[in-house]
């Protein structure tokens, strides 16, 4: 399980952990990425969204969710009434993994070792934020949080238990919506993602009342 090598949690502040992560060499991805892309958002966020890894744009700017998928994500959060500034967004892996095709850097999926190596940083974020709701955006995030491979389409919209015992709502990554070629299929999948975010909002309200 991913968590076997990521059990130490050293409480500090988010700023201290973020600064420390800038010089992370826990796996080899740092050798080619521009920089570490740490999470950002409210220190008192009731929901934490965990995605896969930074994309090309995020790697250059040093911030999560600033590319096309991030803009779509922001639009859908606004549509369902979740304030982005009151959330915390991060990635399971903090460095951009890619393959060069000419001058283009094409996303490459992180492997189990890279997910495991980066789990330490995710544990620090979770311990400091202590979100009431945690959302896995895609298979890599779900694996990092649950501790084993998760078939996303089978469990999409469902709440699973993390390897640390707290609930994780599983859904697709917004970039999945952008890759669907057929407009009707893309629209249908967007509606499903909106419904998943409505479930997140309902969980946030339930936890707040509880």
From TrEMBL:
Residues 38-198 form the Uracil-DNA glycosylase-like domain. One of its GO terms (biological process) is DNA repair. InterPro entries: UDG_Type-4/5 (IPR051536), Ura-DNA_glyco_family4 (IPR005273), Uracil-DNA_glycosylase-like (IPR005122), Uracil-DNA_glycosylase-like_sf (IPR036895). Keywords: 4Fe-4S, DNA damage, DNA repair, Hydrolase, Iron, Iron-sulfur, Metal-binding. The keyword Nuclease does not apply. GO terms for molecular function: 4 iron, 4 sulfur cluster binding; deaminated base DNA N-glycosylase activity; metal ion binding. CDD domains: UDG-F4_TTUDGA_SPO1dp_like (cd10030). It holds the Pfam family UDG. Belongs to the uracil-DNA glycosylase (UDG) superfamily. Type 4 (UDGa) family. This is Type-4 uracil-DNA glycosylase. It comes from Phyllobacterium leguminum.
